[in-house]
Amino acid sequence: ALVLIPLGINALENQTASPLGEAAWKDTRIVLDEAAGEWHHIFLNQKIKLEANARVADLLNTFPVALLIKT
């Protein structure tokens, strides 16, 4: 499993902007190496394909946290 939770996310409850997409994450990446491939995004109920050097902006585009299970 892969869990993505931005640091300080609890401080966002009083803010209007969520840490979503390219505006928040720019070109931030997570290195997966051999874990690249097909994953299931539990919160979005979607299958996604992650490259060895996955963009966080793509993973946190519509929801501020992610729980991914390798398929």
Q: What is the average of the pLDDT values?
A: 89
How is the main sheet built?
A: 4 strands, antiparallel
Kindly state the number of beta strands: 6
- Class per helix and strand makeup: mainly beta
What would you call the shape?
A: globular
Distance linking N and C termini: 10 Å
Give me the strand/helix succession.
EHEEEEHE
> In terms of per-residue confidence, which ranges show pLDDT below 50 for 5 or more consecutive residues?
none
Strand order of the largest sheet: 1-6-3-4
Helix proportion: 10-25%
Strand content: 25-35%
Taking Cα atoms only, what radius of gyration do you get, to the nearest Å?
Answer: 12 Å
Number of helices: 2
Question: Can you lay out the helices and strands and say which pair or pack?
Answer:
Layout: E1 2-4, H1 21-25, E2 29-31, E3 37-41, E4 46-50, E5 53-55, H2 56-59, E6 66-70
Walk me through what this model shows.
This protein is mainly β and 71 residues long. Strand 3 and strand 4 form a beta hairpin. The relative contact order is 0.34.
Keywords:
4-stranded antiparallel β-sheet, 13% helix, 2 helices, globular, two-stranded antiparallel ribbon, mainly beta, 71 residues
Compact description:
By secondary structure, the chain is mainly β.
